Amino acid sequence: MERNVIVKSFSAHKGLNSPLTITPQMQRDMVDMLNGNMFTGLVMTFVAFSGLTFGFNTDNDQSTKMILWAAMIIVTLARLADGLYWHFQLKGTGYSVKAVKFRFAVGVYLISVIWALYSVLLHSSMSAVELATTMVVLGAMAGGAASVLAPSKTLVSIYTTSLLVPMSVCALFHDDENFFVLGVLGMVFWMGILSSSLRYHRFFFDTVSLRDKNNHLIEQMRSDKKETAKINAMLRKSNEQLDDANANLEDEVEKRTADIFRLSNRDPLTNLLNRNGLFKQLNTLIETTRALDNNLAVLFIDLDGFKQVNDSLGHKIGDIVLAEIANRLARYCEKDHLARWGGDEFVAVTPYATVHTAVAVAHAMRSGVTEPIIALDNQITLDATIGIAIYPEHGNDTMTLIQQADLTMYDQKRKQRGTIGVFSETLHEKIKHEQHLCEQLRYAKEKNEFSVYYQPVVCANTQKITSVEALLRWHCDGQLVSPAHFIPLAERTGLMPDIGSWVLNRACIDATEWPFDEKIALSVNVSISQLLGERFINSLDKVLASTNIEPALLYLEITESVFANNIEAVALQIHNIKQRGVKISIDDFGTGYSSLSRLQSMPCDVIKIDRSFVQNTNEGSDTIMRATMLIAKEFDCKTIAEGIETLDQMNHVKTLGVDFIQGFLYAKPMPLSDLKTWYNENN
If we measure between CA atoms, which residue out of 376, 283, 364 comes closest to residue 331? Predict the structure, then answer.
């Protein structure tokens, strides 16, 4: 297959060079047109050349004219023979376009050479009349060629140039000034002819291209017509099939509508309403309740302990449990008044319910949830925390009521799982205040609202200061926010690792400015999320390097609650900390998850006895403190009794054998500047 050729041709319409794609069919059309116009061109060439040869008799150059005339006759006859062969043998067949075009081009080139030789060899002996006549003839021949040879830009350019340029150039350099004018006119005429030939060339291909497109469109129309007829036949057949199925169409539509409603409004696991279905149903119930001037209760139910079921027994058993819980909760609701909100959360709607009625229903639901469930030979016991919101007292629309019930459930879950709460404005204000604090907490560090206070720890025997504990303080909007309030918020919002890192760095910097005469240790609290963070050890290394604090004088204080987390990850972090020479202190010992085996796997340096044992002066508390001191001694740990506020408490823990004492009896937490004053006054 002949490849397509990209040609850039002058566009008469746009005045720009635009790309033109020459297809094989266009190439064939070009050759057909060139050969079709050949005979007229040959006759004109023969007549013109013979007229110039014999019309002016120049004795000196007549022999040269005869030689050139003979050459022209030979070439013309050869081209005529080739044209006749094409016309009678090749035209209309699948002939080789390349070969025919080559032969045609050779013929044109030879005639061009003969015309050029005629001008070059004979111009010097021509008179002004002969020269002018020759140039007129050559101009006429070039004008004719501009249209006859237009299909080939190369051929028409070479041919018109061979006819006009040699004679014009020779005239320009002739001694006779009249010849110079003829030469100029010849060059101008050549440029005009060349420009016209290029326009003819573009016009030819535009015409051929348009014809090809029209042919293609006609063929496409025929094809489309056939395809349309085929499709029409298929449509007629389909219509017949649709007519046959029309009797059952209504039943099928109803079935599909029911399926769509079920898929878009029901939970596939429990067959309860999903969120979308709940919104539709609750909107309708609210409208009815409003019209009757009545009440309506929304109960937001969250399962307690379900995550452990999924994590330990797998999602298959988890799905069985959820389906069973859904069946139990449905006993206390009317049809389509219970929805699965997502995960292990459900929402129930109780029409015509007061607060007391809603609480009673909630207790009944909770009792149903707490009954043991048998799932694939596994006995599972769960509980539920439930929040209640009442229409119209707590909200007038669906989203508000669900949000209020959800917030109430969340607040109850924080206070005590497995309980029931009713929304109140106090709770709403509390949550708004917490949200405000959370937002402020995000920018507290940038606004320099954090500060570090220090509380001394003294030796029980010598009453000398041995260490200080760094405690974070936050002044928000000019008011001091209790750590017991904002630390849990920081934990829940994921800010604690960043805040804890700042406290560690600030305290270690302050430790380089201690006013103490002797070496005093620094104790810094580390949260669970901070300790288990991937960047904690790297952060610790940076602090040690930047502050040059002696690692042995730095105690990282962790609470017992870390033992409830990934024990292997905690052990690895403690090992990395101890490798650096930093000490470990366990806070609130005896109130949480500690065990002897865990202390053995994660050795510490100090155990802090919680203030609840110190301030509760009964035999049970003393027993726990003695046991703690015994454990500490066995593990070669020191003990600190915190929360000492009176001399009696101090003397009592000294009698029990505690190593160090901390509490308001000695000093409250204070800024670094006050710590310096306190030390100078009390040391």
Answer: 364
